[in-house]
Design goal:
By secondary structure, the chain is of the alpha/beta class. The two termini are about 40 Å apart. Helix 2 packs parallel to helix 3. It has a seven-stranded parallel β-sheet with strand order 3-4-2-5-6-1-7, sandwiched between helices. The protein has a six-stranded parallel β-sheet with strand order 8-13-12-9-11-10, with helices on both faces. Strands 14-17 form a two-stranded antiparallel sheet. It has four domains: about 5-195, P-loop containing nucleotide triphosphate hydrolases (Rossmann fold), CATH 3.40.50; about 205-400, P-loop containing nucleotide triphosphate hydrolases (Rossmann fold), CATH 3.40.50; about 405-505, Orthogonal Bundle (Arc Repressor Mutant, subunit A); about 525-600, HRDC domain (DNA polymerase, domain 1). The structure holds adenosine-5'-diphosphate (ADP) and zinc ion. Adenosine-5'-diphosphate binds near residues 47 and 296.
Length: about 600
């Protein structure tokens, strides 16, 4: 009897059903046709080429730029009993020869190769001499010069079409707007191929953006309440802040490591390895960290500084929850972030057009921070997708944002900017509004202007909130030359003249997220009564991972452990019913986990 894709899904990968378009894509490739696949991170792209590679004669060749990941991917496949190897510069010549021998002798189902290796003449020649199941081009957006991860080596991949027109090519990516997609199709010869475009929503990620008050205490509360024992990434803008924050988290009892371009290559490698191999490690990082981090159980992404664009924000937060389990994207932001980024942009090199684009991107990012409606809706809308108005899993949906009529306050603030000559920063302006007793104000004769002391009905912090929103929404602009001085923009005129009103958000201290909602850490997902078993299973997984020198998630994902907690399998047959358990995993690890469960039940 012929083996079917769904049988392989069950027997080898241990899953019951295909997700979304997986089945259709696999059928397309099995029929020998090319295709282009766009799926969000965690959507399940790998199966789309792994299963056809197992079903078609010959070896599946997977091109990937992420050399650091190949080892883990191959380890994971070998754990499943799949004959997989990789070929890149990290292998010794001897190991390379062994892989090539396996390849020639037809002993491989899947081979991961770096693009520069594939482009070598010798490799092409070798591939001509053996049967090939398919070519999978992972991270296919790297072929696009407009994308942000362009790789010169990817350009050469057009040779696949010339050399192997009959072998199905499947290009996969998680990031591609219409332009990038067209470029991928063009370069890889997929213009006439079927394009499978999935939605970009990541429903398991809860988006939350909070006003910055005391960021460290806010972070601490967030971690303690929601992610006590979880792995996550904390992004900061500067190396110094990365170092300081990591050290501080360690003082607070967390396992945290820094990651930025100022560290030595070995140090970075070591810290990344700990993140991958140990449970519950927090990486504090600049944006240098993340590309190619395939860890499925990252439970939270924190931004202590504002990203420069929604593209960056979405990519960085997208590293959470690849396993489909609940995860949190949590950010604090404040007025200083806005001012600093605006200044950095103005001071940056580059022509006017470039700066204008950068500024527009920052404005979109600020827009997301200040909206009072569903964040997910706004994000998807920005990326050209429609979504429901109410997602139920972002802070705006969970805690509708209260607003107040800020028209009068905004007029006072704008008028104060105007009367003081449009060159002072926020702190000074607030002093004037509050009628403060300051030498600087007296020197400037600003105690005699009409806006001096007219803002006593609000406190300093409330004024700060007003200014932040006015800057973020484009009523005020930040000056580079005067170090953060504010001036009015054209948009402010109708508001100032009383022709327009404005609703401002009330900054709540720390929006309380309703507990029944999805942002729960993995430890919280498990009810207290099950905690003991859960921890025992995690220990068992860690021991096996260390013995086999692989990351814990290569043994089993959290979702599999959770299944074990829920169903308490006691026999091998029952164990096979656990999500993520196929024959190979049963043979290797069934006994160990069953013993833990039986011991717990006894
Ligand atoms: P991507 O490459 O699209 O980011 P992966 O291929 O790494 O995603 O898959 C993400 C996670 O989802 C992996 O843990 C994978 O094992 C799991 N997965 C993929 N397909 C299925 C499925 N049909 N059923 C259950 N889990 C799946
Ligand atoms: Zn929402």
């Amino acid at each position: 009897m012929k083996t079917t894709p769904v049988q392989i899904l069950k027997d080898i990968f241990g899953y019951e059903h295909f997700r979304g378009p997986q089945s259709e894509i696999i059928d397309e490739v099995l029929a020998g046709r090319h295709c282009l696949v766009l799926m969000p991170t965690g959507g399940g792209k790998s199966l789309c080429y792994q299963i056809p590679s197992l079903l078609r004669p010959g070896v599946g060749i997977v091109v990937s730029p992420l050399i650091a990941l190949m080892q883990d991917q191959v380890d994971a496949l070998q754990e499943l009993g799949v004959r997989a190897s990789f070929l890149n510069s990290s292998l010794t010549p001897e190991a390379q020869r062994a892989v090539l021998r396996d390849l020639r002798e037809g002993n491989l189902d899947l081979l991961y190769v770096a693009p520069e290796r594939l482009n070598q003449e010798a490799t092409i020649e070798l591939l001509h001499s053996i049967p090939i199941a398919l070519f999978a081009i992972d991270e296919a957006h790297c072929v696009s010069q407009w994308g942000h991860d362009f790789r010169v080596d990817y350009l050469q991949l057009s040779l696949l079409e010339q050399h192997f027109p009959e072998v199905p090519r499947i290009a996969l990516t998680a990031t591609a707007d219409a332009n990038t997609r067209a470029e991928i199709a063009e370069r890889l010869g997929l213009v006439d191929a079927r394009h499978f475009v999935s939605g970009f929503d990541r429903p398991n990620i809860q988006y939350r953006i909070t006003q910055k008050q005391n960021p460290r205490q806010q972070l601490l509360r967030f971690l303690r309440r929601e992610h006590e024992n979880d792995a996550g990434i904390v992004y900061c803008l500067s190396r110094k802040k990365v170092d300081d924050t990591a050290a501080w988290l360690v003082e607070q009892g967390f396992t945290a490591v820094p990651y930025h371009a100022g560290l030595s290559a070995e140090q970075r490698q070591r810290n990344q390895q700990r993140f991958l191999r140990e449970d519950s490690v927090i990486v504090v990082a600049t944006i240098a960290f993340g590309m190619g981090i395939d860890k499925p159980d990252v439970r939270f992404i924190v931004h202590l500084d504002l990203p420069k664009s929604l593209e960056a924000y979405y990519q960085e937060t997208g590293r959470a929850g690849r396993d489909g389990e609940p995860a949190t994207a949590w950010m604090v932001y404040g007025l200083q972030d806005v001012i600093m980024l605006r200044q950095m942009m103005d001071a940056s090199q580059g022509n006017e057009k470039f700066k204008r684009i950068e500024r527009a991107k920052l404005d979109a990012m600020l827009g997301l921070c200040e909206i009072t409606t569903c964040r997910r809706h706004a994000l998807l809308h920005y990326f050209g997708e429609s979504g429901p108005d109410f997602c139920g899993n972002c802070d705006a949906c969970l805690n509708p944002v209260p607003t107040w009529d800020g028209t009068q306050a905004a007029r006072k603030a704008l008028s104060c900017v105007y009367r003081t000559g449009q060159r002072f920063g926020v702190n000074y302006l607030i002093d004037v509004l509050l009628g403060a007793d300051s030498d600087k104000i007296f020197q400037n004769n600003h105690h005699q202007i009409s806006t001096y002391g007219i803002g006593k009905e609000l406190e300093g912090n409330a004024w700060r909130s007003v200014f932040r929103q006015l800057v973020a929404r484009g009523f005020l602009s930040v000056d580079h030359a005067t170090y953060g001085g504010l001036h009015l923009s054209e948009k402010a005129r109708p508001l100032l003249k009383g022709e327009e009103s404005i609703a401002l958000r009330i900054d709540v201290q720390e929006p309380v997220v309703k507990p029944e909602k999805k942002s729960r850490s993995s430890t919280q997902i498990v009810a207290d009564a099950d905690r003991v078993l859960w921890e025992a299973l995690r220990r068992c997984r860690k021991t096996l991972a260390d013995e086999n020198d692989v990351p814990p998630y290569v043994i089993f994902h959290d979702a599999s452990l959770m299944d074990m907690v829920h169903y308490r399998p006691l026999t091998e047959q029952q164990f096979l019913g656990i999500s993520g358990v196929g024959q190979s995993k049963l043979d290797k690890y069934g006994a160990a986990f069953l013993e833990v469960i039986r011991g717990h039940e006894a």
